[in-house]
Amino acid sequence: MADQAFVTLATNDNYAKGAMVLGRSLRNHKTSKKLVALIGPHVSEQSRAVLHMIYDEVRLVDVLDSGDMAHLAMMKRPDLGVTFTKLHCWTLTHYSKCVFMDADTLVVSNIDELFDREELSAAPDPGWPDCFNSGVFVFHPSNETYGKLLQHCTEHGSFDGGDQGALNSFFSDWATADIRKRLPFIYNMSSIAIYTYLPAFKQYGANAKVVHFLGNTKPWSYTYDPKQRVVRGDIQEASTHPGFLLEWWTLYSSCVVPMLQKEYGEQPFHSGCEELPQCEQAQPLISSEERKQRWEQGQADYMGVDSFDNIEKKLAAFLK
């Protein structure tokens, strides 16, 4: 429907890359909905141009300099700047219903059925399942709701310092009021769950529709060799399953990088795509299927990437 849209937010060029991949993944899986990108003032002109090629609407939002209610709220709670920026999605009142998706998510199957859900529908957070993860949620744009959210944030803040704490505080009955608003985890499968409950991932992971690259290390933090189809970086810091990381880079290098190259022209820019020579030090991330087979055959790399120390480091990094 023309009055329904997927919405994302990019505050800088790195997150703009994520938004580009997210938009392309939605297009590749034949969504019938509009695509909207909210961007911050630090997104470059070149990135904005590429976003305009992928998204139906690209809207600049800046709570620090705006003259709306958010600006008044900022004067009382400047610590919630990022949260207030995300809340701008409720001002998209020319749409009747939207699905917000963080720029570090990747769609691996058509998810238009999410528009059958009501506000506020979301998947449980793996760290505290009685809270929802705000990386994917269904909402109804409304200036009235937007004003109430700003007032709530100004008065109560956020218990985690970000939008997730604020939204869970505002929609406080999510876990108890209506089971229909609890989205299946496959609509927001976060990386931490893969390593904390591997048997469940082996059982249900193939049904995943949205992958969320949680943690400080994002897909664009790595480099990629398109010829060898190898993702390079510190494997111990990998924030999600290698197969999904490879899928993100394949889409980025094939669909997004050519558009960025055209916009930058002769100007240098860091695409992250490299053709590095093979060497013994390079440790390519194995594919999802290869790693699954090794686990099932009892051949987990207990001294390497699958060691207890490495898994403990991932958990520690996430909890921080």
TrEMBL record:
Question: Which GO CC annotations does the UniProt entry carry?
Answer: cytoplasm; nucleus
**Which EC numbers characterise this protein's activity in its record?**
2.4.1.186
Q: Which GO terms describe its molecular function?
A: glycogenin glucosyltransferase activity; metal ion binding
Write the record's keywords in alphabetical order, separated by commas.
Answer: Cytoplasm, Glycogen biosynthesis, Glycoprotein, Manganese, Metal-binding, Nucleus, Phosphoprotein, Transferase
Which InterPro entries did the record assign?
A: Glyco_trans_8, GNT1/Glycosyltrans_8, Nucleotide-diphossugar_trans
- Subcellular location as annotated: Cytoplasm; Nucleus
Where does the record place a coiled coil? none
| Catalytic reactions of this protein | [1,4-alpha-D-glucosyl](n)-L-tyrosyl-[glycogenin] + UDP-alpha-D-glucose = [1,4-alpha-D-glucosyl](n+1)-L-tyrosyl-[glycogenin] + UDP + H(+); L-tyrosyl-[glycogenin] + UDP-alpha-D-glucose = alpha-D-glucosyl-L-tyrosyl-[glycogenin] + UDP + H(+)
To which pathway does this protein belong?
Glycan biosynthesis; glycogen biosynthesis
Q: Which cofactor does it need?
A: Mn(2+)
Gene Ontology biological-process entries = glycogen biosynthetic process
Q: What class of enzyme is it?
A: transferase
Protein family (similarity comment): Belongs to the glycosyltransferase 8 family. Glycogenin subfamily.
Cited PANTHER family: GLYCOGENIN SUBFAMILY MEMBER (PTHR11183)
| Protein function | Glycogenin participates in the glycogen biosynthetic process along with glycogen synthase and glycogen branching enzyme. It catalyzes the formation of a short alpha (1,4)-glucosyl chain covalently attached via a glucose 1-O-tyrosyl linkage to internal tyrosine residues and these chains act as primers for the elongation reaction catalyzed by glycogen synthase.
- What name goes with this protein? glycogenin glucosyltransferase
Which species does this protein come from?
Pygocentrus nattereri
